[in-house]
Structure formats: structure tokens, C-alpha cells
Amino acid sequence: MARSSVHVSYATVPMVIVMTVLCLFLANNVTHARMPVTYYVGGVYGWDPIIPMDTWARGKIFYAGDILEFKYDYLTSNVMVVNRTGYETCIANEGAKEYTSGDARISLPYGLSYYIGTYDASDCSAGLKMAIRAIS
Ligand SMILES: *[C@@H]1O[C@H](CO)[C@@H](O)[C@H](O)[C@H]1NC(C)=O
To answer: Mind naming one GO cellular-component term on file for this protein (predicted)?
Structure first.
């Protein structure tokens, strides 16, 4: 009995070390996972057709879960999350979601998403539109 319990406890030591190392490794991986990045859409210009918003987005690599922060004057502008038809036609589709607060934080879904400004009919065609593809 005593012998066998001694034997078990010695055998347990390497296992404890393995588990400890494994836990440290996993914890390290978790803490080094990529944190979501917040992007201020349009940079210093904000959500504004002063520059085409697609130009701002070009060349950036977006990940699902990143945050797009749209800053705009809520008296003169809005943000609508539309589908591809809405983006192409500059007319919000049925079911599009509108943001009117002037400061919209939107979490990027995986895949393609489309944003347009529709407060003024000419905004979207002037460049207040953006298509973004987020990877996983
Ligand atoms: C966008 O939504 C409208 C309204 O629901 C729909 O008619 C249209 O086919 C959709 N476009 C796409 C590309 O899914």
C-alpha cells in the first residue's frame, strides 16, 4: 500500500510539470491573442465625403471583431449599414440599420459589410460610402 502510493506520487511529478508547462503555454497564447483594433473611419476627417471613404479603407487589413468608429455631425449626417445593393445604388435597402448619434461604434462582422451616408441625398455618391471585408 505504502509502496504503491509512493510510486504513484513519484509518477505524478513529471505529469505536474507537464501540466504546469502546458498551462503556462496556453495562458501565454491567450494573453498574446490579437486584441480588437478600433479604427476611426476617415481618420482625422471622420465620416465625411471630404475624402472618399473607400479610399480611407483601402490597403488596411480588417479583422472580424475590430471596431469601426464613425464620427460625424449628427445634424448633417448619418451612417447606414446596408447590403451590396444599397452600397451600389446609394439607396438604403429594406432592413438597413441607421445610426444617428454622431458617434457610432460598430463591430465588424466577418466578410463583406457596407456603409453609406444618406442624410443628404448627394452624400453617398459624393464618397460617403464604404465597403469593408473583414477576415477572421
Ligand atoms: C438588399 O436588400 C434588399 C431588400 O431586402 C433586397 O431586395 C436586395 O436583393 C438585397 N441585395 C443583396 C445584394 O442582397
So the answer is: plasma membrane
